[in-house]
Amino acid sequence: MDKSKTPVAVPIKIAVAEAAPAVAAPQPAAPAAPVKPAYIKDPKQLVGIIHSLRGLTVEVDITGVRPDERELLIIDDYPDVFLEVSFFRANRAVCINLANSQMLRCGQAVSRSQKKVSVPVGPATMGRVFNALGEPLDDGPGITENRRVISEASGIKTYRDKQSLELLETGLKVIDFLTPFVKGRKIGIVGGAGVGKTVLTMEMIHNVTQSTKGALSIYCGVGERIREGNELYVTLKESDVLKNTVMFFGQMDATPAIRSMVGPAAATAAEYFRDEEGKDILFFVDNIYRHIQALTELSTNLGLIPSEGGYSPTVYSELRRLQDRLSSTDKGSITSVQAVYIPADDLSDPAVVAISQQLDSVLVLSRAVAEQGIRPAVDLLKTTSSLLTPQIVGQRHYDLVGKVQAIMQKYDSLKNIIAIVGENELSPADRKDYQSAKKLIEFFSQDFSVAEKFSGKPGQFFTRDQTLDGIEAILNDTAPPEDKDKKEEAKPGTTSPTAPVAATSEKPAEKTDAKAAPAAETKTADAKETKPAEAAVKAA
Ligand SMILES: Nc1ncnc2c1ncn2[C@@H]1O[C@H](COP(=O)(O)OP(=O)(O)O)[C@@H](O)[C@H]1O
Ligand SMILES: [Mg+2]
């Protein structure tokens, strides 16, 4: 903005080869402005002249050297202007005006910088906040050394066959039960606007970073509210988690070009820690849909033809490339939690489908559930996970999931009948299942630590065993959910009928089997009672 006083005619002079002294000349015209570091023009680097400007798209007629794809082009006199070469059309370079600078004019001379967009990586970045260009957004200094180009994926591409499949506990009943959080895998939190994706993602950050003390987290904020990013920064700082976190933001105020680069920028940082330092990384994105949206906006800007649903045809391959970078190798793992916005609450939106295909678990948040005041507002029937296998979660957990899904399915169809004839007309078995389903829905609702400021209730953390015990009790009708909450609080100490809480991690299959045995013993009497109900469920 301070450059507005500089005469527009200046750049034209640049065409003269010895431009260095000429560059300094117009400066006195704007005495108040700080002296800008003028690029010394190197005629050997001259690419050509700006031919046209349309939105963020800048076409450069190549008269000199041909730049690389993705290279940053610069304009002498304006060091803040960066044009990224997107593709070539005949003898023109089609570029994106990254910072949406208003200082561009047709006829300006453009030269190569021999650089691509890069971000700082490594220990110096811990506790820092950057934008997609790697510039600091906090008060700290800029980092010039140890930078990596964001568009080039590093690391080996082979997936590790080391099947560690380590379960991480999130303390959230419904997540630990339906979409187990497994190290090195991806979980999506999918929902329309305002159903609680951000709050749930924050709760996951809160719980997982607390339980995996010292784990390295990378947070990637794409196209969402600036306020939320700020709140998260403050929260992380207060809970002393910030020092193990690197944050990247390109929120809704940024240009689509910048928004589409935050994901790759954060992935670059994660890859470094994974491949060079062999770390296990927690990677949080809010919101990955905005990445697709930014790419689509950008391609519309570049004049490419949209495809199904208005998305540009190449966004899906770009999305896959990004998701592929967020994978685990034999050196380290990247475990990601990705919030996914659903436009118009339509789960069949092609972008949402494309994102869901890349995830191991998809937790669907529903507006109908949120309206009932249930948090997290999880749609128990639409939520799916490919990690719910006996090998990963153990036989007991696996069996319970099947029963819960059957009861919820039945609840869904009974709801309509009850709306017409009333609950008393149901058969006793149906009525029992209906009641169990209602108790389960209530059971999966829990208070969040990060929501304490608006709900006034402190957050709750449940171990996976507590969750399984609670569900078993509801299915077997051994305790009303209210009493159970109290029981759960007492449980970690002495009263647990099953194995001690600590025995969860490495080899879930064996341990849960061992646990399932005593549990079965204590509940044999109840189990007999539930059999007919289950049979009824299967019949239905
Ligand atoms: N667990 C929760 N407890 C209490 N209120 C919640 C909870 N989750 C969401 N909310 C309410 O819903 C609002 C929207 O949630 P948010 O996570 O920002 O939605 P989204 O990211 O899906 O658009 C929050 O501002 C908060 O008032
Ligand atoms: Mg949100």
Topology:
Blueprint: H1 10-13, H2 20-24, E1 46-54, E2 57-62, E3 71-75, E4 78-89, E5 92-97, E6 109-116, E7 118-120, E8 129-130, E9 147-149, E10 167-168, H3 173-178, E11 181-182, E12 186-191, H4 197-211, E13 216-222, H5 226-238, E14 245-250, H6 256-277, E15 280-286, H7 288-301, H8 315-325, E16 333-341, H9 350-357, E17 361-364, H10 367-371, E18 384-385, H11 390-393, H12 395-421, H13 428-444, H14 452-455, H15 464-476, H16 481-490, H17 508-522, H18 524-539
Parallel strand pairs: 8-14, 12-16, 12-17, 13-14, 13-15, 15-16
Antiparallel strand pairs: 1-2, 1-6, 2-5, 3-4, 3-6, 4-5, 7-9, 10-11, 17-18
Helix pairs in contact: 6-7, 12-13, 12-15, 13-15, 13-18, 15-16
Bound molecules: adenosine-5'-diphosphate and magnesium ion.
Adenosine-5'-diphosphate binds at residues 191, 193-199, 375-376, 448, 451, 454-455.
Which regions are unreliable across 5 or more consecutive residues at pLDDT < 50?
1-40, 483-540
Distance between the termini: 69 Å
Total separate domains: 3
Number of helices: 18
Widest sheet: strand ordering? 8-14-13-15-16-12-17-18
- CATH topology group of the largest domain: Rossmann fold
Compounds present? adenosine-5'-diphosphate, magnesium ion
Structural class by SSE content: alpha/beta
Find the CATH superfamily of the largest domain.
P-loop containing nucleotide triphosphate hydrolases
Summarize the main sheet. Answer: 8 strands, mixed
